[in-house]
Amino acid sequence: MFILLSGAAGFLGRGMLAPLSEGGHRLRLMDVVPCPAAPPHEAVQADVADPSAVAAAMRGVDGLVISHMAPRGADNVNYRTPAMPMAINVGGTATLLQAAKDAGVKRVVLISSTSAVQCAGDLATDPALLPLRSTGWYGLSKAMQEQVAEQFARTEGMSIAALRVGYILDGEANVDKYGRAVAERNYMDTDRRDIGEVARLCLERELPGWSVFNVMSTPESMQRAAVRFTCERLGWRPKHDFSWLREPVAKP
Question: Bigger pLDDT: 85 or 38?
Fold first, then answer.
């Protein structure tokens, strides 16, 4: 499969490259900033807000992984107002999905977030049953990404899987996307390589038009965040479970 990966230069995108490549898949790495690429992968610099550039990047691919997001900026400044998250997270997703539809690309994975349902109830519930209910501009943009994607799946015959991820980390280096060291395990910790593996499995399988999966890596997430459903439905087990990190000390 030839897969277009948006947000490929970011922390998550770089971590997903190796697992997405397994099985002989080729990648076209797309970002608004330059992406280094090594054969057989390609790289293209394009803005998700530019329909012509996105359409050109979509040519010839068989699958799409949407992992771009608006940068938070210093002190989360870009998410204090709706302008950037709505334009990039939501508008960019719609532009990518329209280009995929026009190019006949049927298999798509959207990297969403548990923030899309953070006010919906117990995360241990089957994610397919939780309503979209968020807070803040980031959470709302993730919920709206899912709404846009669900409509494309329902009306255009596309197979789209939304992955609601937790706290994205690099377990190999024990750091988060900002380079901050991680010393304690949180049940929502998610290794970026595990996200890439689940994304690849979703693209390879015959899934219904619209699917939702929680993706986290810790043993505790199996029950507390309904990751057991992801494992059962995709035949997957996390490879990077953060068992080497100490569990947080309970507060008295």
Answer: 85
Residue 27's domain spans which residues? 2-234
Whether 156 and 101 have beta carbons less than 8 Å apart is answered as: yes
Flag whether 239 is in a domain.
no
For residue range 27-44, what is the model confidence (pLDDT) as tens digits? 999 999 998 877 889 999
Q: What is the pTM of this model?
A: 0.96
Position 249 in a domain: no
**Cβ(58)–Cβ(64) below 8 Å:** yes
CA-to-CA separations, 85 to 31, 80, 89, 109, in angstroms, rounded = 16, 9, 5, 19
Within 8 A by CB and 6+ apart from 41, the residues are: 17, 21, 26, 27, 28, 29
**DSSP H helical ranges for the chain:** 11-21, 51-58, 83-84, 92-103, 136-156, 192-204, 221-224, 227-234
3-state DSSP helix/strand/coil percent for the chain, to nearest 5? Answer: 40, 20, 40
Question: Average of pLDDT values for 212-222?
Answer: 97
- The number of folded domains in the chain is 1
Instruction: Report if residue 240 sits inside a domain.
Output: no
Nearest to 127 by CA among 234, 194, 226, 196: 226
Does the residue 252 lie in any domain?
no
The DSSP secondary-structure symbol of 250 reads P
pLDDT band at 249 (very low <50, low <70, confident <90, very high): low
For the domain that residue 15 is a member of, what is the CATH number?
3.40.50.720
- Summarised one tens digit per residue, pLDDT across range 100-121 is 999 999 999 999 999 999 999 8
DSSP-derived 3-state class of residue 217: coil
**AA identity, residue 9:** A
